[in-house]
UniProtKB/TrEMBL annotation:
It is a multi-pass membrane protein. GO terms for biological process: gamma-aminobutyric acid signaling pathway. Pfam families: ANF_receptor (PF01094). It is found in: Membrane. It comes from the Eukaryota. GO terms for cellular component: G protein-coupled receptor heterodimeric complex. One of its GO terms (molecular function) is G protein-coupled GABA receptor activity. The keyword RNA-binding does not apply. This is Gamma-aminobutyric acid type B receptor subunit 1. The keyword Transmembrane applies. Residues 6-100 form the Receptor ligand binding region domain. Keywords: G-protein coupled receptor, Glycoprotein, Membrane, Receptor, Transducer, Transmembrane, Transmembrane helix.
């Protein structure tokens, strides 16, 4: 989840004269993915992420060449609220941790 490292790696590939890259796979972190998706788009590359959940990445205006297989966080919130309503729950306690996904 280190933005400078990911960006450097992507730039090296983009400016490689023998480039055969047709797409970018990853990153695992939304913060890195937002940056690489912007650069990949400018370079005509598609990007697919398997774990980035940032709602910003859903914007096809900002990231037209970005696709993901993980549901954005905001979609889960809608489902949670619907579950609470269906169960008739009026009070819910949320347990959370303040840690980036896939970090140590």
């Amino acid at each position: 989840c280190r933005e400078p490292v990911a960006l450097n790696s992507l730039y090296q590939e983009i400016y490689n004269p023998n480039r055969t890259t047709i797409m970018v796979l990853g990153s695992t972190c939304s913060s890195v993915t937002e940056i690489t998706a912007s650069v990949a788009n400018l370079s005509g590359l598609q990007q697919v992420s398997y774990s980035a959940v940032s709602p910003l990445l859903s914007s096809k205006q900002l990231f037209p060449n970005f696709f993901r297989v993980m549901t954005p966080e905001q979609s889960l919130t809608v489902a949670r609220v619907k579950l609470f309503q269906e169960m008739g729950w009026t009070r819910v306690h949320s347990v959370y941790e303040d840690q980036k996904l896939f970090s140590s």
